[in-house]
Structures are given as structure tokens and as C-alpha cells.
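Why this split exists: single-chain examples teach little about how molecules sit against one another. For that reason, every record in the complexes split bundles all components of an assembly together and asks for one structure covering all of them. Below is a record exactly as it appears in the raw files.
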Amino acid sequence: MKKWLTALIFALITPLAMAATSVDVVQPYARAVPPGQTNSAIFMRLKNNSAVPISLINAKSGVAEAVELHTHTMDQGVMKMRQVSEIKIAGNGMTHLKPGGYHIMLIGLRQNLFEGQKISVKLYFSNGEMSVVELPVKKVMVGMKKMSH
Ligand SMILES: [Cu+2]
């Protein structure tokens, strides 16, 4: 009886689990920049719904010439950006992309990014999944002071 019940529960749950993507993109946004500024960044939280680690390995967007995965490091008291090949998300874990930390760098903007606009970015993950994410452009003051050192 118990085995039968377990089998039934698995039969009901498994199709739902397979239909969802492994990584949830939570509260994504891009930094609004003044006209003429050539670079900006995208931030979000990445939530891994699977038990195995997954990495964000690439991102693409039509709004910039190049899109890179970046992090910040402290170098003798100065915040510097550095390109990384992947941003890891632990199994059942969450990774924050935020000002002063990991971010998706937009290099060579093809358009101005004004507050209230929406842009689109494609995220590529190490498990072969790809997510198309629509995100708002917001004013972000945090991290700007550190950047201007
Ligand atoms: Cu950067």
C-alpha cells in the first residue's frame, strides 16, 4: 500500500518538475545610465531549483555590442571589475548579482537606458538551458560611489 502511494505521488509530481526550468530569475533589472555613457550592467538573483550546481555561462542582449559576465574585486582599496567565465549557483542555492559584486556587463550600448524602459537578455546555463528574460531599467545609486574611486 505504501509503495503504491509513493509511486502515485512520484507519477503526479515528476511531470510538473520537468516542465519547469532549473534556474529561476528573480527581480532582474538593468542600471539606467546618462545619455552618452557606453556601458551599463544587469543585476538579478539566480535561484537553482535543482540539487546539482549550475553555472550561468553566457548572456546576450541586443542593447549592447558585447555582453560579459563580471565580478568586482578589491585591489589595494580600489574596486575593479574582472571578467569571469561563469557565475556558479550551488545546488538548491541562490546567487546574487548586485552592484559591487557579480553582474552582467553591457559594453558598447546601442541605445540609451532610461528608467522605465524594458530590455531583453538571454541567459545561457551550463546544463544547456536558456532563458529569455525581460527586465526593467532602474536608477541604481548603490555601487556608483565605489566605482568612481
Ligand atoms: Cu563590469
